Amino acid sequence: MFIGYQGNLAVIVADNREEIEQNLFLRTDRIEEKNTPVELVNGKIAVGTAEITTLKSAEKRRIRDTYLKQYVDPIVSNALRWQDMSDAEKTAIENYRFYLLNLPQSENFPNEAVKNFDEWQE
Length: 122
Prior knowledge:
There is one protein chain. By secondary structure, this protein is α+β, with helices and mostly antiparallel strands. The chain folds into 2 domains: 2-35, no CATH class; 57-121, no CATH class. The chain has helices at 17-21, 49-76, 79-83, 87-102, 117-121; strands at residues 2-6, 9-14, 30-33, 38-41, 44-47.
């Protein structure tokens, strides 16, 4: 893996040097080869399996927390909204909340996508 830099800022990750050198949109003043896995995770360059896993885990937890705070918990914690829902709707929300809360313990975490409610129901 190769990382292209502008000054001290890493701006591109590529499988080979030519991919960086031939990029028309980015000028790099230094290209560094890494013999360990390199990935761009949420705008940050992670070098090495441990750092990649750490950054991916943090990003997936951030997405999960956003879904819980913005979409699930406002319904579950609002007694008036909750009582107006059908039993099927309540069960779906409860099951989705359970999915989100248990996501970090899932077999493919942190490599799987965090599903929004519509994706999860499919």
